[in-house]
Amino acid sequence: MAIGMLTLELYLPLVESLKDKRRIVRPLLHRLRREYNVSVCEAEAQDDLTRAVIQVVCVSHNGTSAHRHLQNVANHVERWRLDAELVDYWIEMLG
Fold it and tell me: Could you count the other beta carbons within 10 Å of the beta carbon of residue 26?
């Protein structure tokens, strides 16, 4: 069994309030849960208006499969939203 964690760093250029940020981040979290069957949370920068750090975790039967799944998530996040720019991401294998 393998556990993989994807950390996504997003830049939110059009956000002027925490409510605006929530309108972008919350639907993204729900969509990731629904479409990829992963655990997801906003991990850092909750009070920073123009930055969001999202962590995605999956469990798989092997490390290669978990890494591929998380890479697929990162690729789709990059294309999903026009109001959130994927600045950086990294994948860690935890087990």
Answer: 11
b/e map 64-88, b = 16+ CB within 10 Å: eebbebbeebbeebeeebeebebee
Q: Name the pLDDT band for 95 (thresholds 50, 70, 90).
A: low
Structural element, H or E, at residue 79 = helix 63-80
Per-residue pLDDT at 37: 92
Q: CB count, 10 Å around CB of 25? A: 20
Instruction: Name the average pLDDT for the chain.
Output: 89
Set out the domains of the chain in order of their start, with CATH numbers. Answer: 2-93 (3.30.70.1120)
